[in-house]
């Protein structure tokens, strides 16, 4: 949190994100830039906890609505029961980068389900969410691997030029953000 505060008060832009594997590697700094947003409203830890907790609850509501619209109330109820485990409830209100992974994964999955069921492959928000997930934490890799595999194996998806452009954009931004370190 101190790194985000340095960005706000001293305009010191971090070049690396949270460390990985005993500080041998670092994530890109996207997490710190997202951490700044609630601190701009109120420079307290409570602002972060309230914001992250509220965003998680909104992401669960969003995905619940998408699941309910596509598959019905039973599946939506099953999702809601599984969406609020003790781990998620305890950690989504903290300034810890995996807390945002759960929130952004809900939004990414909701966007993905909506696009697949509408037979659309031209939304910009899905690649933006994928890029944010890559910035936040490597625990998002299984979800991103599954979505990427679907996109590569689905012929209709690959034919759409907007999908090709967004996949190229996400790949380029992801590679460039890791290579800057």
Which tags fit this structure?
single chain; 181 residues; mainly alpha; two-stranded antiparallel sheet; 2% strand; globular
Low-pLDDT parts are none
How would you classify the quaternary structure? single chain
Strand content: under 5%
> Structural class, from helix and strand content?
mainly alpha
Number of helices: 10
Helix and strand succession? HEEHHHHHHHHH
Q: Tell me the span between the first and last alpha carbons.
A: 20 Å
Round the mean pLDDT to the nearest integer and report it: 79
For the largest beta-sheet, the strand count, sense and barrel status come to: 2 strands, antiparallel
Sheet with the most strands: spatial strand order: 1-2
Number of strands: 2
Task: Using the CA coordinates, give the radius of gyration.
Answer: 17 Å
Shape: globular
**In which range does the helix fraction lie?**
over 70%
Word description of this protein:
With 181 residues, the chain is mostly helical. Helices cover 75% and strands 2% of the residues. It contains ten helices and two strands. The protein has a two-stranded antiparallel sheet with strand order 1-2. α3 (45-71) runs antiparallel to α4 (73-83). The longest helix has 27 residues, at 45-71. The protein starts with a helix and ends with a helix. The model has no long low-confidence stretch (mean pLDDT 79).
Show the helix and strand layout:
Elements: H1 2-10, E1 19-20, E2 25-26, H2 30-41, H3 45-71, H4 73-83, H5 86-91, H6 97-117, H7 125-136, H8 141-153, H9 155-159, H10 161-179
Antiparallel strand pairs: 1-2
């Amino acid at each position: 949190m101190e790194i985000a505060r340095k960005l706000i008060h001293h305009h010191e832009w971090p070049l690396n994100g949270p460390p990985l594997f005993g500080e041998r590697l670092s994530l890109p700094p996207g997490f710190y830039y997202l951490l700044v947003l609630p601190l701009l409203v109120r420079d307290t830890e409570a602002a972060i906890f309230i914001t992250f907790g509220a965003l998680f609850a909104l992401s669960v509501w969003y995905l619940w609505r998408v699941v309910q619209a596509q598959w019905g109330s039973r599946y939506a109820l099953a999702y809601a029961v599984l969406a609020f485990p003790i781990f998620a409830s305890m950690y989504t209100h903290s300034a810890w980068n995996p807390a945002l992974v759960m929130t952004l994964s809900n939004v990414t999955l909701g966007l993905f389900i909506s696009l697949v069921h509408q037979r659309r492959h031209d939304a910009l928000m899905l690649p933006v969410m994928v890029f944010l997930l890559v910035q936040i934490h490597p625990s998002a890799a299984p979800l991103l691997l599954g979505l990427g595999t679907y996109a590569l194996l689905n012929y209709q998806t690959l034919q759409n030029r907007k999908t090709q452009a967004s996949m190229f954009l996400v790949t380029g931004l992801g590679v460039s953000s890791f290579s800057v370190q």
